Amino acid sequence: MAVKKFGVGQALRRVEDQRLLTGGGLFMADFNFDRQLHGFVLRSPHAHAQFSFGDLTAVRAMKGVRLVLTAADLAHLGPVPCLAPLPNDDGSQNLVAMAPVLAEGVARHVGDAVAFIVADSLEQARDAAEAVPVTYVPKKPVVDMRLALTKGAAAVWDKQPDNIAYDASMGDKAKVDAVFAKAAHVVSLEIENNRLITNYMETRGAIGDYDAATQSYTLHLSSQGVHGIRDSVANLVLKIAPDKLRVITGDVGGGFGTKTFVYREYPLVLEAAKILKRPVKWIAERSDHFVGDCHGRDNLSVAEVAMDSRGKFLAMRFDILGNLGAYLSQYGPYIPYLGGTMMTGVYKTPLIHVRVRGIYTNTVPVDAYRGAGRPEAAYMLERLVDRAARKLKLSQAEIRRRNFISPAAMPYKTPIGQRSYDTGEFDGHMTRALEAAQWDGFAQRLKESRKQGLVRGIGLASYIECTAWGEGEDVKVTLEKDGSVTIYSGTQSNGQGHATAYAQFAAQHLDVPLERIKVVQGDTAKVRTGNGTGGSRSIPVGGISVFRASEHLAGKLKDIAAGALEAAVSDLEIVDGHVVVAGTDRRISFVDIAKRDGVTEAMRSGQGDFVPPDATYPNGSHVAEVVIDPDTGRVTIARYTICDDFGLAVNPMLLAGQVHGGVAQGIGQALLERTVYDAEGQLITASLMDYALPRANDMPSFDFETRNVPSTTNPMGIKGAGEAGSIGSCPAVMNAVVDALHRAYGITHIDMPATPQAVWAAIQSAKVQAAE
Amino acid sequence: MYAFAYHRPGTVRQAQSALHKHEDSKLLAGGQTLIPTMKQRLASPSALIDLGHVAGLAGIEKKGRNIVIGAMTRHADVASSAVVQEHLPALADLAAHIGDPAVRHRGTIGGSLANNDPSADYPAAALALGATIITNKRKIAADDYFQGMFTTALEEGEIITKVSFPMPSKAAYAKFPNPASRYAMVGVFVAKKGSDVRVAVTGASNDGVFRAAPLEAALHTKFNAKSLEGVSVDHTSFISDIHGSADYRGNLVTVMAKRAVLKAQGK
Ligand SMILES: Cc1cc2nc3c(=O)[nH]c(=O)nc-3n(C[C@H](O)[C@H](O)[C@H](O)COP(=O)(O)OP(=O)(O)OC[C@H]3O[C@@H](n4cnc5c(N)ncnc54)[C@H](O)[C@@H]3O)c2cc1C
What we know:
The complex is a heterodimer of chains A (772) and B (267). Chain A is α+β, with helices and mostly antiparallel strands and 772 residues long. Chain A contains 19 helices and 28 strands. Helix content of chain A is 29%, strand content 23%. In chain A, helix 9 links the parallel strand 14 (313-325) and strand 15. Chain A starts with 16 loop residues before the first helix and ends with a helix. Bound molecules: flavin-adenine dinucleotide.
């Protein structure tokens, strides 16, 4: 690709930062409308309880109170939709339990929405919420997944007494079992993937408005894409035509997957606005976030590998329990299954069997969170591989090298999950990562740590993931009359910097500075279609559509210029916002083109609609080196090295930002973030006083590089990069922690998060065992 | 938050009479504990008496062999004070590690000592250094002041005006922060003054800050980290929560005490 000053490949600074860092952002709480009222959600304090309301007349008459909604008022609304229910292996379908907009007589998790109160002020709404007469009759809750599966366990849903939402599998079990029965070595690992609570900086929020004259609704909300939410809320919840609902999203302070979904508050503010004929605003408090937004991860799995005497993987078996919470969220059931489809990893294991069961519990619903299934898969697999290496006394690198799928085997059809890896040089990335991490110098560093009484370990993870599958993006790029360019896109930046990256795609063809290019997202009235931001698709799908639309526009501009300059199109080129007759000083500016008589908006607009034929498969290796203080159990990350394959770097600075952020999230999951429910289903970690988020000083300095191998499933060779950081990091860090603890104490397993107390306790019990 | 009245007295006397006049009223210092509690509707004072504009409550001075700090002095000001850094560096270091920058620029030493959170840092310094808590009514020795978690010797309507810290010959604070809140999971303040050694522990006990007698005795014999080898405190009444069992906190007390001693010795 030609090098353009503002084009693809340049490490340009984000055009949005000046505005965002100087207080110019417009986040959900910043939106306010005339005559606006305030909504408050009354939530269940019980994990499982039957409830009923007393007489609400007095509450409805309280000062400032405009409306009190309960399930009885919402019978005409559909439930919050689950778009991905999964059948059992035999084709049968278990209960698909979707959340009613407000709970109907039974609350099924702490935080379950039981009433919605609207008042002139938020404090009045809260006062009214406190006064609502609710009688709860607690029922036995189901909290722990393993207990949920035991005979005689209580049921979240009477209609599904075994608490199993689905029981599905992939692969040929009989063949796999036969290999296991005869294998020279079998290694197994029982492992947990801890539940996470997203904690975007900006909590969710929504404002509903209704225009009685046109019978149409407007929903302002903080989201990862407006079109999907419009379609679900209109078609499935409100049961109106989608063109009667306009959905608008402004700046978004973080999404990480969990802002993709429809939540109850969206139909609630719309319904209230319709009844009251006034805008109704609801903003989640941090405590609402903890119990009102979907959580992530939460798997319990058994992973097993069968090997020959040389450590060659002959077969693998995985049994995954995915906690889905009390209701099936939008994609909830699919996430652990998606993880299952990625269990091949980077290895040429010929036979694999995966069983995935989705489990109902009286906890907050679980759905996609940065990586959505792929981090769970990579974590379990890479931990298993390290354990296998230890058993066979092979180095971490050697066991991987013996089993990597080779570049010559590409495209590679995986034995399960029906995937086709287009490209991948796994050994190349691992080798480079080991070199960059100075793996060979570890022995010396270990010696130095030991002298200081510290425990040191090094860990490796070679991951692969899948991004940017499924639907396309239909993008329009328009040259405005003032010579600026507008990109209309149905993806939704929630912090990634689309305004910068998309402008670079456009500048590649239109050669204008980024400041002259505007990106319009987040309004169903301005952008015709869209599939939102998720699955790292905004660059490999959305970006390519922008690229194509800009190319289309460039061609049209040349057509117009050809007439004006009386030159052949083939002699024209675009330079610095002008169409120029190559090798001459004859030129026409974009402004003059746009203003020319007879030039319509359609003539100065380009379209691009890239639909990916298949996913892209980003991959790479992470190396983490940790130092553990044995007296306190505190783990510090001393060094962190990443060598990734993203196909093509559109903006190396934005790319590094995505990777750093993803790794930070992974380190948070590995060392800090622990979600604790007690046996009664109370969320113990329901605030930032108890839920430990990573902070800057928990992070090492990252050594990040790319070693790009272009993807073959899109014309620019890009592989999605938004989630990879959170995928490679958990196994790398935990393999390093286990390596350290194994060298020093013979410890072979510890679950995430490896908190100081967990590490210290593991060391204590290893010492006791050693003494016995 | 429930509605409340707001008063802004200019003197301690006015603050005192405002407190008397308004039933269920509360003093407001940095608001770092009180305001979040009110936002969560866990506290509902009828009125707040803001000490922020009371003359003479903030400031740091050296008076003979004491460092005297006004109740409304912010943590950040203690941390960056040249006087404290020179004469009581352990206290500057402690203040520099409270919460985050926003908290340090609002939170006050008076508020922290009045609140006596079992995981707060200042109580450990006050107890180990043998500070005197000075109120509008009297002077209270630290040994008499702390009376269990969130409980102090302060009476109804009593206002802390100053805290006086005697200067030790050696002192240091070692804190193991709670990974989530960054309050002290265990914090140990060690102070040596002549042959007297005092060790105060915060974060660990259900009874709030306390002096660790076995550690003091060991250090009295020889002020050396090695003296603490194998010495521990009884942890039966220690806090046990998701962040740390009583055992774990018990271990941390000795570990942090050793580190504090090394730090005090400049190692
Ligand atoms: C996110 C966060 C992190 C924190 N981390 C730490 C930490 O790591 N370590 C730590 O020690 N602390 C920590 N704190 C607490 C903080 O540092 C303050 O010390 C604490 O909030 C109390 O001080 P304040 O000035 O904010 O008091 P306020 O919140 O204003 O008042 C607290 C109580 O003291 C009373 N009071 C205030 N001043 C006086 C006075 N002069 N006389 C009598 N009564 C008075 C008030 O009436 C109220 O009951 C943290 C707080 C937050 C919000």
